[in-house]
C-alpha cells in the first residue's frame, strides 16, 4: 500500500530484577503503567491510507524536519561523558524495501534457523511509514549522543536500495565493537494495544548465534532505556506485551541472536492505534523518544 514518502522530521519471559526495577520506576513517574505482540524482525504492511491530518500530532500527520546535519567524519566530536564510547543505531527497515520485495524475501541465517533478509515495516493507517519514523528518530538520537561525545554509527541512512539484511545489521554492530546497539522500531498491532516496549535477547546458542555473553548487559541496557523512556515521553509501557514492564525477551530475532555486543530493539509505540499514531507522527514527540533513548543509553554506558 502507498506510503507517505515526504521527508519526515529529522512474549515472553523477562528478567525478574529488571522487571522489578522498571515497575518501581513506573510507580514514581507515570500513574497507571500498563500491562501479545506479533512483532517480528520487521512488520509487513497492509495499511489503508487516508487523508493526512495537519502536523499538530493528529493521526496520519507528517512531522516537520528539525534535525541538524551530522558532523562530518573529519570533524572532531565534542568532549563529553560518552567520549570513547561507540554506539550503533539501527533504524528499522528501509523506506525502499517495498520496491525490492524479491531481495528482502531472500532467507538469511539467524543462527537458530533462517528468516527473511528484511521486511517493509508497518505504517500508520494514513500511510506514514515506520521506516520514515525510524530514520527520523535515529537522526535525533545520533545528534543527542554525539553532543555527549559518543562515536555514533548508523547501520544505514536511506543510502541504499534495500536492507541491510538482518544478519548484516548485527554484523555492523559487532565489527564496530559497539558498547551498545539500539534498533529503533514502531509496532503494527491491533487498535487498543498501546505503549512502548523494549525487546531483549534471550539466551540463544546454535549455529552462528551465541548470546550468552550479552544477555545480562543487554537486559541492563534495555531496563535503563525503558525507565528513561517512561520519564521523558510520558508513554506507559505496553499494555499488550511484557506484562506491564515494557520489557520482552525473544529468541527469534536475528538482529539479537547474531549480536556479540549489548543490543536491544525499542518498539516506540503502535502505529495502528490512533492514539499512539498521534504521538508517532508528532515531531515534538519524536524528539522526546530520542531523548528517552539517549538518556537510557548514557545511563547504561556511564555504569
TrEMBL record:
UniProt keyword annotation of Hydrolase present: yes
Gene Ontology, cellular component aspect: outer membrane-bounded periplasmic space
Gene3D superfamilies, A to Z: Zn-dependent exopeptidases
Keyword entries, A-Z: Hydrolase, Signal
Pfam families in alphabetical order: Amidase_3
Compositional bias per record (Low complexity), positions renumbered to this chain: 45-72
Coiled-coil stretches noted in the UniProt entry, renumbered to this chain: none
Keyword Signal: yes
GO MF annotations, alphabetized: N-acetylmuramoyl-L-alanine amidase activity
Signal peptide extent: 1-31
Residue ranges occupied by any MurNAc-LAA domain in the UniProt entry: 170-298
Record SUPFAM superfamilies: Zn-dependent exopeptidases
Listed Basic and acidic residues bias regions: 96-105
GO biological process, one term: peptidoglycan catabolic process
InterPro entries assigned: MurNAc-LAA_cat (IPR002508), N-acetylmuramoyl_amidase_3 (IPR050695)
Region (Disordered): 35-105
Superkingdom of the organism of origin: Bacteria
Protein name: N-acetylmuramoyl-L-alanine amidase
Lineage, opening ranks: Bacteria, Bacillati, Actinomycetota, Actinomycetes, Kitasatosporales
Amino acid at each position: 500500500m502507498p506510503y507517505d514518502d515526504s521527508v519526515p522530521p529529522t512474549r515472553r519471559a523477562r528478567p525478574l530484577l529488571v522487571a522489578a526495577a522498571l515497575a518501581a520506576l513506573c510507580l514514581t513517574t507515570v500513574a497507571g503503567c500498563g500491562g501479545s505482540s506479533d512483532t517480528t524482525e520487521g512488520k509487513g504492511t497492509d495499511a489503508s491510507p487516508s487523508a493526512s491530518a495537519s502536523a499538530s500530532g493528529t493521526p496520519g500527520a507528517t512531522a516537520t524536519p528539525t534535525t541538524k546535519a551530522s558532523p562530518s567524519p573529519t570533524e572532531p566530536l565534542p568532549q563529553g561523558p560518552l567520549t570513547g564510547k561507540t554506539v550503533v543505531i539501527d533504524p528499522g527497515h528501509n523506506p525502499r524495501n517495498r520496491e525490492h520485495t524479491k531481495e528482502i524475501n531472500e532467507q538469511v541465517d539467524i543462527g537458530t534457523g533462517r528468516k527473511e533478509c528484511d521486511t517493509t515495516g508497518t505504517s500508520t493507517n494514513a500511510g506514514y511509514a515506520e521506516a520514515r519514523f525510524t530514520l527520523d528518530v535515529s537522526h535525533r538520537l545520533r545528534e543527542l549522543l554525539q553532543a555527549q561525545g559518543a562515536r555514533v554509527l548508523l547501520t544505514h541512512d536511506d543510502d541504499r536500495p534495500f536492507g541491510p539484511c538482518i544478519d548484516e545489521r548485527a554484523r555492523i554492530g559487532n565489527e564496530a565493537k559497539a558498547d551498545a546497539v539500539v534498533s529503533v522500531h514502531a509496532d503494527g498491532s491491533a487498535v487498543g494495544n498501546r505503549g512502548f516496549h523494549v525487546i531483549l535477547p534471550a539466551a540463544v546458542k546454535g549455529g552462528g548465534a551465541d548470546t550468552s555473553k550479552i544477555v545480562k548487559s543487554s537486559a541492563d541496557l534495555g531496563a535503563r532505556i525503558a525507565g528513561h523512556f517512561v520519564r521523558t515521553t510520558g508513554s506507559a509501557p505496553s499494555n499488550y506485551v511484557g506484562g506491564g514492564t515494557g520489557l520482552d525477551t525473544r529468541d527469534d530475532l536475528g538482529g539479537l541472536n547474531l549480536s556479540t555486543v549489548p543490543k536491544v530493539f525499542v518498539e516506540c509505540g503502535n502505529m495502528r492505534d490512533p492514539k499512539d499514531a498521534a504521538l508517532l507522527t508528532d515531531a515534538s514527540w519524536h524528539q522526546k523518544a530520542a531523548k528517552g533513548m539517549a538518556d537510557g543509553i548514557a545511563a547504561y554506558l556511564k555504569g
